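User: For my dataset I need records formatted as: sequence, then structure tokens, nothing else. Please produce one.
Assistant:
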Amino acid sequence: MNDILTQNPNSPAVKAKKLMELQTLYKEIKPQIDELKAELLQVMQEQDVLTLKTGTYTLSRAKRITPQVVDFKTLRKSLEDAEIEVITEEVFAPQMDLVFKQAIEEGREFDGLESKVTEYVSVRIKEE
């Protein structure tokens, strides 16, 4: 019976084995991908290039903003003073991330809240 599970290409056992093989390959090449992206980001920053588009791919500089609560009590008071409704009991709950990101993008500052900005290169490959 076990042979039936491992011989059928659609069986969960075969799919799990293929997934593990792909994960192993990904772990091997991910450092190379990250290094190349870092080098491309540096060149794009130096040349002040935001997007590079060719017939086969597009490279774009992008930013990820990650809100970081550094002092819960101070942030809660700061939000109340700004008349922003805290939609959860805990101000640092994931539901508040959208509120924090929007405030950061608008340039608003709240005591107890900091942001981490990470710039990276996004790669889109044109499929034919």
